[in-house]
Amino acid sequence: MKQVRKINPDDLKTAEEQLLSLSDLLNEIKSKPDKTPDDIELLANLGLQLKEISQHLDDIKMILDVTLSRKARAFYENVKKLAKEGDKNAEKIYNDLKEDFEKFDVN
């Protein structure tokens, strides 16, 4: 998670732009009727690079999903505890969140 937090938003934007550019290049090469051996090699290399990048992005997404889920659960449990102790503001928040958390609670 520490590594994910270190990612600069500008770097993410740049990576997105580069991926879109690569995607355009791939589509351009794929649409060529007569591909040269260099085109075929470039397609293979780009495909491997995109697969690796995609895996890294999937890993980051999974880390973020798990982390955010844990934090949301901790927040919910704390609000639930405060509501049971009589905190009226926490009770409002708890009642708002309760249905969503109970709907997906596997316990």
Short summary of the structure?
The chain is mainly α and 107 residues long.
Order of helices and strands: HHHH
Strand portion, in percent? under 5%
What is the typical, i.e. mean, pLDDT? 85
Q: Low-confidence spans: pLDDT under 50, at least 5 residues? A: none
Shape type: elongated
**Portion of residues in helices?**
over 70%
Q: How many domains make up the coordinates?
A: 1
Secondary structure class reads: mainly alpha
Q: Tell how many strands the DSSP assignment holds.
A: 0
Radius of gyration: 23 Å
The number of helical elements comes to 4
Largest β sheet strand count, sense and barrel closure:
none
CA-CA gap between termini: 26 Å
SSE diagram, text form:
Elements lengths: L1 H4 L3 H23 L5 H48 L3 H16 L4
Notes on the protein architecture:
The protein is an all-alpha fold and 107 residues long. It contains four helices and no strands. It has helices at 2-5, 9-31, 37-84, 88-103. Helix 2 runs antiparallel to helix 3 (37-84) and helix 3 crosses helix 4. The longest helix has 48 residues, at 37-84. It is elongated, with a radius of gyration of 23 Å. The model has no long low-confidence stretch (mean pLDDT 85).
Descriptive keywords:
107 residues, mainly alpha, 0% strand
